[in-house]
Design a protein that fits this description.
With 163 residues, the chain is of the alpha+beta class. It is built from 3 helices and 7 strands.
């Protein structure tokens, strides 16, 4: 076995390890983004007027239904301001999320007709970045695969050294 063959096998092993490491880091952040947030169970009444409740502090919030394909309606009752119903219908699309912005000052109490997941603050940013942003997803794949392709396909790093 020549030195260049051993060198090539070592480089391929290192680049595969790099790809696995990048994929694991991305998977961890994707998992954090997908499973972050507060779960709110279904209200006891059809109109969502009874608990359980979520205490909304007035920062932008993303509400998504915990039941795939089924929209939830949440009743928001602020301490100051008018009550409104907020729907999870079209709260997120294939490439975007649409957070709910407060129309009131202070805090509000919220209950929903079906189970929901509520994300606020940085949870919204992380969720959108890792689940909707194709540039980041493709970039992670390129960063993971580029060294492997450079070594295995293009033969970089396997030049013979002169003694």
């Amino acid at each position: 076995m020549s030195d260049s063959t051993m060198n090539r096998k070592t480089l391929i092993g290192i680049t595969i390890g790099w790809g696995v490491l990048v994929a694991l880091v991305f998977a961890v952040f994707l998992g954090i983004a997908m499973f972050s947030g507060t779960s709110l169970a279904k209200s006891g009444t059809a109109d969502g007027s009874t608990g359980p409740y979520f205490r909304w502090n007035g920062e932008p919030m993303l509400i998504t239904s915990a039941q795939r394909g089924k929209a939830a309606v949440c009743k928001v009752v602020p301490e100051e301001g008018e009550s409104r119903d907020v729907s999870t219908y079209r709260a997120e699309g294939r490439r975007y999320v649409d957070p709910v912005v407060p129309w009131f000052s202070g805090e509000a109490q919220m209950s929903c007709t079906t189970p929901v997941t509520i994300r606020v603050g940085s949870e919204i940013t992380n969720y959108e970045l890792f689940t909707k942003n194709r540039v980041l997803q493709i970039g992670a794949a390129v960063v993971a695969a580029a060294p492997f392709l450079a070594v295995s396909v293009f033969g970089l790093g396997t030049r013979k050294t002169r003694a």
